[in-house]
Design brief:
The chain has 159 residues and is α/β, with parallel strands linked by helices. It has 6 helices and 10 strands. A hairpin with a 5-residue loop joins strand 7 and strand 8.
Length: 159
């Protein structure tokens, strides 16, 4: 599958330079980190949330961290819950199940990015399949994130 069509089009239209990293098929962002020998804190994962008014938001955070829903909800003045994976297929039709790219703009979705990612010199994200990562250097990742709101809303995971 490689890069999801909408993601590829968005990156091209925005003149965002990237490279790809192929790895054996995996089922999680942590698995992708292990398979590609990339520290998991450099992998940006996308988690889709729904607020109390039925609006969707993509939370973008490092693969080795977990969302603090209460903290994020307080910062956004919203009640948030995780969207079930079975609902995501209709939103991300060009992606394999569970391989959502951390590029909300390509899918016309509001997003929030954890500040931790904006501090990194290199960031990797799922491409829409389970065996390709997209590599962005700091300027290109910041360009991809554009005007997306950024906060600290994650904590170390118990992995």
């Amino acid at each position: 599958m490689s890069i999801a069509a909408r993601l590829g089009d968005y990156l091209a239209n925005q003149h965002i330079n990237y490279s790809t990293v192929e790895h054996i098929p995996t089922q999680s962002s942590i698995g992708s980190a292990i398979a590609s020998y990339i520290p998991p804190e450099y992998i940006a994962k996308a988690v889709i949330l729904e607020d109390h008014q039925g609006r969707y938001v993509m939370a973008i955070l490092p693969a080795n961290r977990k969302i603090c829903l209460r903290s994020l909800g307080q910062q956004l003045d919203a009640t948030l819950q995780l969207v079930h994976e079975k609902e995501l297929g209709a939103m991300f039709t060009d992606c394999a199940t569970g391989a959502i790219p951390a590029a909300s703009q390509a899918y016309n979705m509001n997003a929030i990015v954890d500040d931790v990612l904006l501090e990194l010199n290199d960031v990797y994200l799922e491409s829409g399949d389970h065996q390709t990562l997209i590599h962005l250097d700091k300027p290109q990742f910041q360009k991809l994130m554009g005007n997306i709101k950024h906060l600290r809303f994650s904590a170390a995971s118990l992995h």
